[in-house]
Amino acid sequence: MTSTSFTLLLGGSLTVTDRLRALTEGSRVIAADSGMRHAVDIGVTPELWVGDFDSSDAALIARFPNVERRTYPAAKAVTDGEIAVAEAIARGATRLIFAGALGGERSDHALQHYLNALGLVEDGYEVVLTSGEEEAYPFVEQSELALELPKGALFSVLGFTTLEGLTIRNARYPLEDFRLRFGSSHTISNLAEGPISVSLSRGRAMLLARPYDFSGA
C-alpha cells in the first residue's frame, strides 16, 4: 500500500538520531531546496525536489540527477517549504514530518513552520516538526496528544493563544484544567516522568520536546 506519511526535508538544522529514523521510517520524501542536503545524511532519495534553488549549490544538484525537480521563481508568494507541503497533500499525505524545521539561519522560516503546522492540524492532518534532537507537536482544542518520552526528558508547552482547560499528565509539574494566559512562561521546562499526555479544551498550542536533554533532571 502506498504510504500516506511524508517526510519534508527543510532547510534548518537536522541531526540524525534513532528517534528521527523511527519517525521517518516508511515515509515518502519530498525535499525543499537546500533541505535536500539532509537526504545524504538520512540515506534517502526523495521522489520530488521543489524550490527556487537559490540555496542549493551545483554540487548538491549534481548529486541527485535523477530526482524530479520542479523549479519556481524566487519572486513567489509562498516558501519552498509550503510548496513541499502542498505537493505532499496532493499525493495523498495524511501525516507530515517537517524534518529540518527547527532552528537554522532563518528564524522567520522556523516560526512559519510552526504556524503552518498548527493550521494543518486544524485541517485534520497529523504533523510533527523535528531537528532530530528536538521535536515539536502542534495540538488544538478538543484534542489529546500522547508522546513517548524517557523519564527526565525536558519538554515545554507554548500557547499560541490563551489556553483553556490545559491538562498535562505524567510530568514533574502536572496540570489539570488549567488556564494559561497568552504569553505566559508557566509551562516552560517541564520534565517527563515517562510517556506524557497533554490536552486542552480551547486554544492552539505546541509541545516542544527534547528527548535527549536531561539537564533539568
Fourth CATH level, the homologous superfamily of the largest domain: Thiamin pyrophosphokinase, catalytic domain
* Helix fraction by DSSP (H/I, runs of at least 4): 10-25%
Query: Rg, please?
Result: 18 Å
SS-based structural class?
alpha/beta
CATH class of the largest domain: Alpha Beta
Architecture (CATH level 2) name of the largest domain: 3-Layer(aba) Sandwich
What CATH calls the topology of the largest domain is Rossmann fold
Distance between the termini: 43 Å
Strand content: 35-45%
Specify the overall morphology. globular
- Largest β sheet strand count, sense and barrel closure: 13 strands, mixed
Describe the overall structure.
This is Thiamine diphosphokinase. The protein is α/β, with parallel strands linked by helices. It contains five helices and 13 strands. Strands 1, 2, 3, 4, 5, 6, 7, 8, 9, 10, 11, 12 and 13 form a 13-stranded mixed β-sheet that branches. The longest helix has 16 residues, at 107-122. The radius of gyration is 18 Å and the shape is globular. 37% of the residues are buried.
